[in-house]
C-alpha cells in the first residue's frame, strides 16, 4: 500500500504546480492587458532586475560584468522606450 500512496503523491505535486503556475500566468496577463504598452514594458523589464537581485540574495549567485551589463542595458532600453512612447502620445 505504501507504493501506491507514494506514486499518488509524486503525481499530485506536479499537477498542483502546473495549476498554480497557470493561474499566476493568467492573472499576470489579465492585469497587463489593461495597461498601456509603455507601462507594461517598464514592468516587464523591472522583473528582470528583481529576479537578478533575488538570485543574488537567495541563491548567492555571483554576477559577472557581462550579466550586470545585460541587465542594465535591457532596463535602460525599456525605460527609453517608455519615455519615448509618452512623448508620442502627448
From TrEMBL:
Describe its membrane topology: Multi-pass membrane protein
Localization in the cell: Membrane
Domain of life, per lineage: Eukaryota
* Pfam families named in the record: PUNUT (PF16913)
Q: Where are the transmembrane segments?
A: 34-59, 66-85
Annotated organism of origin: Solanum tuberosum
Tell me the SUPFAM superfamilies matching this sequence.
Multidrug resistance efflux transporter EmrE
Query: Which family is annotated?
Result: Belongs to the purine permeases (TC 2.A.7.14) family.
Q: What InterPro entries does the record tag this protein with? A: EmrE-like, PUP_plant
Q: Which UniProt keywords apply?
A: Membrane, Transmembrane, Transmembrane helix, Transport
Name this polypeptide is given: Uncharacterized protein
